[in-house]
Design a protein that fits this description.
It is built from 7 helices and 8 strands. By secondary structure, the protein is an alpha/beta fold. The radius of gyration is 18 Å and the shape is globular. The model has no long low-confidence stretch (mean pLDDT about 95).
Length: about 230
């Protein structure tokens, strides 16, 4: 399997994968090649046959334990969230949510918000620091450079993940962690058009935008549901 460098350490722990390659590695002899997102086409996957046995990704136990120990010092239910996607993606402005839009979630009692953000969007944290209690992981999280292993290990310790439509949504779903995904009115194809669940991820719940660019009603719904969940 050829993957991004940031994914390699996590995917090496997947027993079904015999060999991990990253860009620049010498390719071994092979008989066939297939883009990952084309695999369902060749397997003739339908809604009824999507494999949903979770988790199908598992981070290293040592990293899981590390973040468990770190979070044990924080009170309340641990709710991790991610607001920004890869800014190089041409439609990122439709799916990413400004961090300040999430401020109302800081009013929910009994909840400790945890930043899962890596690489993009980190600059939005500092201007809002005095407005809420947002826990930022330390340098070990590799937020500046990005590490799916660290992200997965931290997510594994969350009571809930709330995220815009980014890799974090797919990572949390793959780990079998409860995840609420904020979906643009112009959605990515896997979220379909009207569903509030996901056939790919049994633990996912979708909160859909009704008006393109307007996240306020979505955040209000998320806040209401969060209050009921952890009341």
């Amino acid at each position: 399997m050829l993957c991004q460098r940031e994914l390699a350490d996590l995917l090496k722990l997947t027993p079904e994968i015999d060999q991990i390659l990253i860009e620049g590695d010498e390719l071994p002899d092979f008989d066939y090649q297939c883009a990952l997102l084309s695999v369902p086409l060749y397997l003739k996957t339908s809604l009824e046959t999507i494999p949903v046995e979770i988790p199908f990704l598992v981070p290293g136990s040592d990293r899981q334990q590390y973040w468990s120990d770190v979070l044990a010092k924080q009170e309340g239910k641990k709710v991790g969230f991610n607001w920004n996607g890869n800014i190089k993606f041409s439609r990122d402005h439709f799916r990413s949510v400004p961090l300040e839009s999430f401020l109302p979630l800081g009013e929910v009692k009994g909840v400790q918000l945890v930043s899962l953000q890596q690489v993009n969007g980190l600059e939005q944290i500092e201007p809002l620091k005095t407005l809420w209690d947002l826990f930022e992981p330390g340098a070990e999280y590799e937020a500046e450079t990005g590490s799916f292993m660290e992200a997965a290990a931290l997510i594994q310790n969350m009571d809930l993940v709330i995220t815009s439509d980014t890799a974090t949504a797919h990572l949390a779903g793959s780990l079998g962690v409860p995840v609420w995904i904020l979906v643009s009115q112009m959605p990515e194809w896997r979220w379909m058009l009207e569903r509030t669940d996901s056939p790919w991820y049994p633990t996912a719940r979708l909160f859909r935008q009704e008006t393109l660019g307007d996240w306020k009603p979505v955040i209000e719904e998320v806040k209401s549901e969060l209050e009921q969940l952890f009341q």
